[in-house]
Design brief:
CATH class of the largest domain: Mainly Alpha
Number of domains: 3
Strand content: 25-35%
Helix content: 25-40%
Number of strands: 35
Structural class: alpha+beta
Shape: globular
Number of helices: 18
Low-confidence stretches: none
């Protein structure tokens, strides 16, 4: 439970609800409510102006010239030539609408919690006194009904006003229609055709016109009071109960990105939204819609529980914002860490569901027209991190929107691959629901982020990982073309021959630079360590997928040979993993990215057991990078330290993650009062990355073994977790006390033999399909 003594004054204090299709944030105001509404399909675009002006027929020759410049050590020439491959920016996730409720009378706080969000039910609420009588609000976002429901109950008849307004985008009209069940407010919206990232400082950052799409918000209002619509506001007199049901959507005319809240034209959209509202409000009782929501939410959320012992008993009696502030000086509130873990799962359920788009940089909640980094999909780490907890914490259904995005990019990315004279598909630094595949920057982007061509390679890893955890053969078959296309691009991108060594060129390590011979920062070289790690993982995934599917794959042996001939990760003079394929002085020694350690986590190709030298070098690298960074970077460090089995360092990272977030853009992560994580500003990837990191501290798995409590801090001496998942789809429940394993219950749907590791001891066990197997510390004697 998140709860507070007073209303929210800012977006990062408000409480989020969502159904994966639409979201809302709630202020919990005394005397009413302000519901900021987001619609998952409300993106600018799509646009046909995103491709670079480079003639595809000239692309191969230009790429050859880039590679010649790289081989000659002329990094400035290589960077200049790469500018021609840059298209315009990807599109932006938009704000949508604001629904306001204003009660007439004198409002005052009520005793006890003023507002709250129950993660177990997905229901938010707040309460206050209105002219001395109690008023209670309740909000939930229903996935089964695809609506947001806001209920208000007054202990004495009250008067109030309800209105809907656009949120920083253009309105096209508002009206009201009388229905059998009450009044339906209808607001039409126009979405921008193009929105430039704020950091571009464009002359015309928000453009309407060709490519603009229509959107709509319908709010059905049922009440026992008297209602009348005038001057854009619904006035209600003498009500003791009001139910507001909100449905949102857009007109979407695009072949690759169908969405549950979209229609082909405005009339069809209006009919869709009205039907959804009627489906709830035509029911005689209030509770059926709530019960459908509760059952749907519990089906996902209740799969995992985490309890961490220790901490002051008084912590549970403090509001969430006070607990966060207290944690700055007293780290003993282990239950707050558990709350942050559960919050990440809650946010993923709320922002990524079947039929919707993937969770973006802000999940599904955004208040700004030019949101930070366009609130888009940044695919050199951030989008991937959003989905790190999906499979390990039993939310495989929430993984599906990411796989759909990969399917989309497998089609749109062929044009970008063609610019390089390559087969298959490629994606770069950013993308959007329309599958923007090109390097961004419009001929001005810095190579350190714009010229990274491994975005599709990393996203494609999700295909095999989904199967490895779920065994969903139908989804693997559907995703195979995307996986194959990523491999074909990689096969053509790798230069050289296996006998003499192969490379990736040009190559960058995302957003980091080294000091070039001329003394300035540079980004472009050959075979950055992250390239090699991603390609080894992709090749391994393709081989395993091909074996499962049993189809002939004529290119697979050649791809395997080329990947095997890539340079091995190297260790530098300070004992660190080299970020590039050559010793280099880092331009920013404490850079936020730890891309060269992806082989350790999340890819798991390195481990203290299998590759002890690389594991030790990874630990040295983390020491040199330092603990301080942005929110998502600290979450990555958390996962890396957990993978190394270093409980103390993992705990330190978690403590930093739970600091009070400041204002501005400084690279200092933390959490806001509503537990949203800070880049800063708000960026949701650290919420998801932290949840995944905590799971990694408790259970880790790969093809070799399942590791129990591999990075358990001493402060978590007593605790339990239920419902974590491992490779092979094995469920794991753990209970421990005094830092010692008391019970581990493993369950598998099929008979399988697995190695289990605890406290440095390894045993092999046989799991019978459908039956639980319980282990204790004595099992490892």
């Amino acid at each position: 439970m998140l709860w507070y003594r007073g209303p929210a004054e800012k977006f990062v204090e408000s409480l989020p609800v969502g159904n994966g299709l639409a979201g809302a944030t709630l202020r919990g105001l005394a005397g009413g409510e302000r519901i900021q509404i987001n619609e998952g399909s409300a993106w600018s675009g799509p646009t046909d102006r995103s491709a670079p002006p480079l003639d595809p027929a000239e692309g191969t020759a230009r790429l050859h010239a880039v590679r010649e410049a790289v081989d000659a050590g002329d990094v400035r020439r290589a960077e200049e030539l790469l500018l021609a491959f840059q298209g315009t920016h990807s599109q932006a996730y938009l704000p949508f609408a604001v629904l306001s409720v204003d009660a007439e009378g004198t409002a005052a706080p009520a005793d006890g919690p003023a507002r709250w969000l129950d993660l177990r039910t997905g229901v938010a609420g707040h309460r206050y006194l209105l002219d001395g009588a109690e008023a209670r609000h309740r909000t939930f976002a229903s996935h089964p009904d695809a609506v947001i429901v806001h209920d208000i109950a007054f202990s004495a008849p009250a008067d109030l006003r309800i209105g809907i307004a656009p949120d920083k985008i253009t309105a096209t009209g508002m009206d009201a229609v009388t229905r059998d069940w009450g009044t339906e407010l209808r607001l039409g919206l126009l979405l921008p055709a193009d929105v430039a990232p704020a950091h571009e400082q464009a002359d015309h950052p928000v453009v309407y016109g060709h490519g603009s799409r229509a959107g709509a918000v319908h709010a059905g209002v049922a009440t026992d009071g008297d209602a009348g619509f005038a001057r854009g506001v619904l006035a209600i007199r003498g009500a003791t109960f009001v139910r507001i049901v909100v449905a949102t959507g857009t007109v979407l005319n695009h072949p690759f990105a169908r969405h549950a809240n979209t229609a082909d034209d405005a009339d069809a959209l209006a009919g869709l939204l009205s039907a959804r509202i009627a489906g709830v409000l035509e029911e005689e009782a209030v509770e059926p819609a709530l019960q459908r929501h509760l059952a749907d939410h519990a089906r996902l959320y209740s799969r995992v529980t985490l309890e961490l012992g220790g901490g002051p008993a008084a912590a549970a009696g403090k509001p969430t914002d006070e607990r966060i502030r207290a944690f700055e000086t007293d780290k003993s509130d282990s239950a707050l860490m558990a709350l942050l873990f559960h919050y990440g799962r809650y946010l993923l359920i709320a922002s990524s569901r079947e039929g919707g788009f993937p969770a973006n940089l802000q999940g599904i909640w955004n208040e700004e027209l030019q949101a930070p980094w366009s609130s888009n999909y940044t695919i050199n780490i951030n989008t991937q991190m959003n989905y790190w907890p999906a499979l390990t914490t039993s939310l495989a259904e929430c993984h599906e929107p990411l796989l759909r995005l990969v399917d989309t990019l497998a089609r749109t990315g062929a044009a970008a691959a063609g610019l390089y004279g390559a087969r298959g598909w490629v994606a770069h630094h950013n993308t959007d629901p329309w599958g923007h595949p090109f390097a961004v920057g419009a001929g001005k982007g810095n190579a350190m982020w714009a010229s990274w061509a491994m975005g599709g390679t990393w996203l494609a890893e999700a295909v095999w990982r989904h199967y490895a955890f779920t065994g969903d053969l139908a989804r693997l078959e559907k995703s195979w073309p995307a996986l194959e296309g990523a491999c074909l691009f990689a096969l053509d991108w790798i230069t050289g021959e296996p006998g003499s060594g192969t490379h990736t060129s040009p190559s960058t390590s995302p957003e980091n630079r080294f000091v070039a011979d001329d003394g300035g920062p540079a980004a472009v070289g050959r075979s950055a360590t992250m390239d090699v790690s991603l390609l080894r993982a992709l090749c391994g995934s393709a081989r395993q997928a091909a074996a499962v599917l049993g189809a002939p794959v004529p290119w697979l042996d050649e791809f395997t040979r080329k990947v095997a001939a890539l340079p091995q990760p190297a260790i530098g003079s300070r004992g660190e993993v080299l970020e590039w394929s050559f010793p280099a002085t880092e331009h920013e020694p404490e850079h936020r990215h730890t891309s060269h350690l992806a082989g350790l986590f999340p890819l798991r190709d390195w481990s203290p057991e299998a590759t002890p030298e690389l594991a030790a070098a990874a630990a040295r690298t983390l020491e040199l990078r330092g603990p301080e960074s942005t929110g998502w970077a600290m979450a990555w460090r958390l996962g890396l330290w957990a993978s190394l089995g270093n409980a103390g360092k993992a705990e330190e990272s978690l403590h930093l993650a739970l600091r009070v977030a400041g204002d501005g853009l400084a690279e200092r992560g933390g959490v806001y009062p509503n537990l949203f994580t800070a880049h800063p500003p708000f960026q949701i990837d650290a919420n998801f990355g932290t949840t995944a990191g905590i799971a990694e501290m408790l259970v880790q798995s790969d093809a070799a073994a399942i590791r129990l409590l591999p990075a358990l801090p001493a402060a978590w001496g007593d605790g339990s977790v239920r419902g974590l998942r491992t490779v092979g789809g094995i469920g794991v429940d753990l209970r421990w006390s005094g830092g010692v394993l008391r019970s581990a219950v493993l369950r598998s749907s099929a008979a399988v033999r697995r190695d289990i590791v605890w406290n440095g001891r390894r045993i092999s066990v046989e799991l019978a399909g459908g039956a639980d197997l319980e282990l204790t510390a004595d099992s490892f004697s």
